[in-house]
Amino acid sequence: MMDNQESSTPSEAGEAALTTPLAGPSSQDAAAAAPPGAENEENEDGGENEGSEWDDEEDDDDEDVSEDEEDDEEDEEDDDEDEESTCGHEKRQKRKKPMPSLLALAERGILKLLTKAVDGQRVTARYCCGGRVRSLPPTTLPFQDEKPRKVPRLTMRWDDAEDRRGRKIHFPHNDSPSGSRTKLDTQIETLADRCGVTGLLDDSRFSINFDPHFYGIIDVITQVLLPGFESEILKGVPECRGIRAKLSNLQVRSAGGTAYRPLPAHRSSQYFGKLIVCLPYPHKGGQWEISNDGHSSTIDFSHSDDNTTLHWAAFVGDCTHECQPVEEGHQLVLIYNLFLCQRIGEVLRDNSTADPTLFPLYTGVKEMLEHPGFMKKGGVLGFYCQYPYPHVSSNTAKQLPSTLQGVDMVVYSVFKSLGLSTEILPLLDLSPLDEMDETEYEREEECYHSDPWSYVDDYDFGDDFPECESCYPDFPTFEEWKAKRPRIDRVGTKLHSLRFSESSEDAEYIREVKEEVLEDSWPWKELFDVKWLNEKPSKGTGELALVNTFSGYGEGTEKFYSHPVILITVPKLVDRELAVAK
């Protein structure tokens, strides 16, 4: 017995202490020692004390029983948890993001390269540009008014100081093909000899009937290179800035000539850059290397079979340039200094003198589209315009894309020249409706916690949803929930004017209903998974496009803004045929 008592647990010992009477004299001993007549009093007192003692003991017993029941319930819950933990399901793990495929990684890498090329203010597409202007043979000169972008026969007059006489050269030559070649070569060789070691003829010694302003070259330079150019000139009103060109030199470079000397920069505070115009004379070699901010572009004027086209290129003043040696023939280049000035007149809308193949961005885009891993199934590329354009007006369609500037014009013209469908459309910003997403999220979360299986049926959660409650996955956070929803961009079917709509009370609680009301007034098309090449502009940069009035729990108006974007439709790889520059 002693061994059993000694081996009792602390809980058993505590229960024994509560149910055992305290040690003291017995009732018989107390009765024998009591005086006569005190027995009844003691019995009465003893009865009262005895009754109160048992009442206390009964209360303690009730508390013990309730505590035992709670302990038993907790033990049962622990047993249930132990049983559920062995239900056969694996331990729930944290959700992991799905691993992208190799094709997706390759496509993402190519997109990053393109994004890097077009992002920011000083991208590769912004330091140089070029194009060509076709000259007319003499037999078509009477029709030059019908095609003002074509150049009549050029005549250059220059002073021969050695022979003390004036000379002139025609481009293209008007003699017979057999004789003109020999005579023109002789004239060019004489000119090259008079230019000496430097290969330069000062503008005071020659003249030519060619004006880059008239043929739209300066307008192209103004549209492409000027918007991102940093200068104190007209800084407060950059939209009023323009460019003027001043002829500086004629440069003649010949095969076997001396090493090339870089063109000096002008010291004027208004200096912008250089314009070089290559006259139509066949030669080989002599490529120009234009570099800026670690990027480089090669401009090749050597077109041996084309003696009727003037080629030109322009670059900003902080560029460095080098020239490869001329391998055959002579390269004749008109050199202009470009200066900032107050713009006079409108920019011509016809930019046919620009050649997108000479934009530094062209080669990178072409290689990207030819890559077998890029957008194999096709899709849509998007580019947020970097400059504001008044696109919510009745005559907007006539202004764009002619009024595009800087990198916007470069991106549009490069993709367009490759034969891809390229559009400028307004993107509607529906961020004022984001609060309705939070309401929808809270509703789905409540449904999930109250009846998970109904949620699975309603929202197609998946076939592998666990059966036991302990294995249910956590409901996603708002950010995770929103990320799983398909990204939809609402793009106008055309460039709309300012529209107005009115929504009912029902539309204030369900986003789909509200969107139907808005779409009726501002027609759009939904684009899924657009691959954007640059970051979305900050709020407040768009133009007011749609005003919605609503009633119900209060009255008010909602304002929606649109932003012009360039959308490029990329065909499937098997159907992708890029246009070849002519």
UniProtKB/TrEMBL annotation:
It comes from the Eukaryota. Residues 1-98 are annotated as: Disordered. Residues 1-11 have a biased composition (Polar residues). Residues 23-38 have a biased composition (Low complexity). Residues 39-85 have a biased composition (Acidic residues). PANTHER family: FE2OG DIOXYGENASE DOMAIN-CONTAINING PROTEIN (PTHR33099), MYND-TYPE DOMAIN-CONTAINING PROTEIN (PTHR33099:SF7). This is Prolyl 4-hydroxylase alpha subunit Fe(2+) 2OG dioxygenase domain-containing protein. It comes from Hyaloscypha bicolor E. The lineage of its organism: Eukaryota, Fungi, Dikarya, Ascomycota, Pezizomycotina.
